[in-house]
Amino acid sequence: MANGNIKNHTNIEQFKAILKKHSLKATAQRLAVHEAMMQLGHASADMVTDAIRRNGKAKVTVASVYNILTQLALLGIYDYRMSANNKMYFDVNTFPHMHIYDRESHIYKDVIDDELIGIVEEKLRHRRFKGFRIEHIDIQLIGVSSKKKFQTA
């Protein structure tokens, strides 16, 4: 389903312009992180670091990748969420959407359903929660793969 609110920054030139707007340099490490995230979609710093090392475009450490991902998430370029295995996962899609999270493999998949998001937003638009101002709705479905796993003897 198409979504008119897509805010992905797939074009490297757009990404460079966003960095410049925030007074950040387009370093080899930042560009490598962004390229890896565009390929992975949802990823932890470990996963991004592995992808960058396989690609060989930049020298990075897990700590530097985590710092870059966190900085880009705080700027709204990526979204982020904590998984059940206590790892921060980053998401290239910042438009309203839901996730299915596989609690065994720790993999996130996007669920694009504008109608359902609209229903939830409309239902909550006028709700008040004492002591809170709702900033963001984040719907996450948690499950396990329904594919049968075969054991070897």
Topology:
Layout: H1 12-21, H2 28-40, E1 42-44, H3 45-55, H4 62-74, E2 79-82, E3 88-91, E4 98-102, E5 107-111, H5 114-125, E6 140-143
Parallel strand pairs: 4-6
Antiparallel strand pairs: 1-3, 2-3, 4-5
Question: Unreliable runs, pLDDT <50, ≥5 residues?
Answer: 1-6
Morphology call: globular
By DSSP (H or I, 4+ residues per run), the number of helices equals 5
Distance between the termini: 43 Å
CATH architecture of the largest domain: Orthogonal Bundle
- The proportion of residues forming helix, as a percent range, comes to 25-40%
Structure classification: alpha+beta
Fourth CATH level, the homologous superfamily of the largest domain: Winged helix-like DNA-binding domain superfamily/Winged helix DNA-binding domain
> Using only CA atoms, what is the Rg?
17 Å
CATH topology of the largest domain, anyone? Arc Repressor Mutant, subunit A
- Strands of the largest sheet, in order across it? 1-3-2
Number of strands: 6
Please trace the helix and strand order, writing H or E for each element. HHEHHEEEEHE
Overall pLDDT score: 87
For the biggest sheet, the summary is: 3 strands, antiparallel
Strand % is 15-25%
- CATH class of the largest domain reads Mainly Alpha
